[in-house]
């Protein structure tokens, strides 16, 4: 039962939203906090680049069929699912929340949890590392491009040189700098995950607080009802269930090994909160970012709970199969 409870980070996110609802930051303090948040996000992507071994990334692309399958689920199938949900807006889903759901669909996969769940289930961990890493690197370009294509069609977001410049400056440039310095500081950073974890989570919490402060000032809680939030949770569950089914049956059709199937399931069905929240602040600057990231925050917790259960179930099934195989071998030997 414990695995279905929210993790510490999710509790902190909920507390941040509650705090922003009571004491939103605004005026000059908000301007300075925004500068601090931008610096924290730049540090976050610098650390992503410094942690990631270039050799691992290059080796991963050799397994091109698995990588192509995962990227297709992440950046083609998911956006198509998001477009299908568009038939429910605006008569069932409020437009602002639909944009948040569509934004979930164009995000890259998670890194840490995809790798962790693949490991627990006994999957291809090196392939998962490569797939999740490639997804996030390409996501810095594909996510804004998909937002431009899908959102501009409905008149919400258009591409601009300013948006491209901000993404390059705040996200991609720090990542590249981290990659350049990775041979010198990569081992040091990877050895201090617990020490540097507050940078990961702290930067996301800062972005969430700033986004929801603006949203509260604009009246987000007056705009959406409890029924709206329940609907978003239901649609998040639908998106995750559809992605899991497609990755499970799609990987079987592709003839992947059991280990590769597991990597495909956990990398192809997940969406990154760590990349999605900072990018939302850049892409949707000047808009109600709080309403856009709300479906992502809910999707984050749902995917953690479901995938934790699924990973343990896969691990238990593999153990049972191994025990049966061992028993059968012993029986044959005894004869």
TrEMBL record:
GO CC annotations on file: plasma membrane
Keyword ATP-binding assigned: no
Key words of the record: Membrane, Transmembrane, Transmembrane helix
Transmembrane annotation, as ranges: 30-48, 69-91, 97-117, 129-151, 163-181, 202-224, 230-250, 262-285
Domain of life: Bacteria
Keyword Transmembrane helix in annotation: yes
The protein's name: Bile acid:sodium symporter
């Amino acid at each position: 039962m414990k695995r279905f409870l929210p993790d510490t980070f999710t509790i902190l996110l909920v507390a941040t939203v509650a705090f922003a609802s009571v004491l939103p930051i605004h005026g000059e303090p908000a301007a300075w906090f925004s500068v601090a948040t931008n610096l924290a996000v730049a540090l976050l992507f610098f650390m992503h680049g410094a942690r990631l071994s270039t050799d691992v990334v290059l080796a991963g692309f050799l397994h091109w069929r698995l990588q192509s399958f995962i990227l297709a689920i992440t950046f083609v199938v998911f956006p198509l699912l998001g477009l299908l949900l568009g038939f429910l807006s605006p008569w069932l889903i409020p437009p602002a929340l639909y944009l948040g759901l569509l934004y979930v669909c164009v995000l890259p996969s998670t890194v840490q949890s995809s790798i962790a769940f693949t490991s627990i289930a006994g999957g291809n961990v090196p392939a998962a590392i490569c797939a999740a890493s490639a997804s996030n690197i390409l996501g810095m370009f594909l996510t804004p491009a998909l937002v431009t294509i899908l959102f501009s069609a409905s008149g919400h977001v258009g591409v601009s040189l300013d948006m491209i410049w901000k993404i390059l400056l705040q996200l991609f440039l720090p990542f590249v700098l981290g990659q350049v310095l990775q041979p010198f500081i990569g081992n040091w950073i990877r050895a201090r995950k617990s020490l540097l974890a507050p940078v990961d989570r702290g930067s996301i919490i800062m972005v969430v607080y700033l986004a929801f402060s603006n949203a509260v000032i604009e009246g987000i809680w007056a705009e959406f009802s409890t029924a709206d939030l329940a609907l978003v949770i239901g649609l998040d569950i639908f998106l995750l269930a559809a992605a899991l089914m497609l990755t499970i049956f799609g990987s079987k059709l592709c003839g992947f090994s059991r280990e590769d199937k597991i990597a495909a399931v956990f990398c192809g069905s997940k969406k990154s909160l760590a990349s999605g929240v900072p990018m939302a602040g850049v892409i949707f600057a000047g808009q109600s970012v709080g309403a856009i990231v709300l479906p992502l925050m809910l999707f984050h917790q749902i995917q953690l709970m479901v995938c934790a259960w699924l990973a343990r179930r896969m691990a238990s099934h593999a153990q049972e199969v191994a025990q049966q195989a061992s028993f059968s071998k012993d029986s044959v030997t005894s004869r």
